[in-house]
Amino acid sequence: MLLAVRHSTRYQYDQLVRESVMEIWMQPQKRANQRLISFDLDLDPAAQLFSYADTFGNAVYHFDIPQPHDRLTIVARSAVETEAGSPLPQGLDRGEWDRLKSDFVRGEHFDFLHPHGFSGPTEALHAFVAEKNLAELRVRDPLRALTDLNTAIYEAFAYEAGVTRADSPIDDVLKARRGVCQDFAHVMIAICRDWGIPARYVSGYLFTDRKSGDRSDPDATHAWVEVFLPSLRWVGFDPTNNIIAAERHIACAVGRDYSDVPPSRGVYKGEAESELAVGVTVSKARAAVSEPEFLRISQPAPRADQRRAKYTALAYEQQRQQQQ
Q1: Do 246 and 300 have their domain in common?
Q2: Picking from 21-30, 155-164, 209-218, 291-300, which range would have the lowest pLDDT averaged per residue?
């Protein structure tokens, strides 16, 4: 499937800010079942782009606007060719649980086996697991257990934007029983890790199909979960729509939770209040012409902590986008 993505982000400030520094996780990945054909970024005000690969191998772009401005617009355009991949088996043998306990799996995927940020265990999560009898799913093989967990989360929560925020802990969605894809992904990740299954957060886009029952917002970014099964490698589960991630999903970045891979994040100097507007369009594309290389830079990009350190005194955390 050939898909085109247009992702527009606009920060509007109620007065001039003196400088902005931004990081962006919007470039689709190159994967076995996903081919990046083209990607470009338009910035207003214009700025020089730099790039680096983060800890998890994601492409991160960053820029600095050192002059006064009262708005910032970022438009990312992508063309991606996706494939569905091989069909999953009905199940795996129960020896998969033992393979998940191997030193290789536990060492290689350490980051995705332990609690982090939004995806940690809480009393509310333990109560939810007990209420839905989710521990009983582990009597099955891991693949069937995960498929049923995907369905259980889908059925337990209603999809509703505006109930939670980008920085909401999982207790908020567990209490409201309503939320968006970001929340459902965090709940599933926390349970998977508690089961000893490596799980990572995937930030990207979905070509929404209402006829197939998709309930996520077609005009927003999307998030889902990938779990590592030794016999199958990484497998994507979308608890928002109760489906397996396939050719309609476009992966941009992976991390331990949302905080590792927000679509955009930055700081600015000034006393202004900011307003965020986001628009996403994912459509079938007619044709594509070229395959890009990762943006090459002539000087090493400084680490994120180094860049932000000099803004500590006057910086304000910019609004972040909740993945819906």
Answers
A1: no
A2: 291-300
Angle at 11 between CA 7 and CA 13, to 5 degrees: 170
The partner residues of 254 in beta bridges, in order of sequence, read: 202
Containing H/E element for 131? Answer: helix 123-131
Residues 57-77 have a mean pLDDT of 97
Radius of gyration of the chain (CA): 20
- Distance between CA atoms of residues 1 and 101, nearest Å: 37
**Is this model's pTM higher than 0.85 or not?**
yes
**pLDDT at residue 171 greater than cutoff 60:** yes
Of 260, 280, 297, the domain-final residue: 260
Of 216 and 266, the structure prediction assigns the larger pLDDT to 266
Query: How far is 314 from 210, CA to CA, in rounded Å?
Result: 45
108/4 Cα distance (integer angstroms): 34
Domain that includes residue 142, residue range:
95-260
The number of angstroms, rounded, from the C-alpha of 235 to the middle of its chain's C-alpha atoms is: 15
- Evaluate whether residue 24 is within a structural domain: yes
Helix or strand or coil: residue 168?
Answer: coil
Task: Return all residues near 116 (Cβ < 8 A) that are at least 6 apart.
Answer: 256, 257
Q: Report angle CA 47, 49, 50 to the nearest 5 degrees.
A: 145
Can you read off the two tokens belonging to residue 140? 């099955």
> How many domains in the chain?
2
Q: Which amino acid is at 314?
A: L
Q: Which residue, among 216, 199, 201, has the nearest Cα to 109 in the 3D structure?
A: 199
**Dihedral angle of Cα 194, 198, 203, 208, to the nearest 10 degrees:** -80
Q: Which of 241, 260, 279 is the last residue of a domain?
A: 260
pLDDT per residue over 19-30, tens digit each?
Answer: 999 999 999 999
Mean pLDDT across 4-21 = 96
Positive or negative CA dihedral for 110, 113, 114, 120? positive
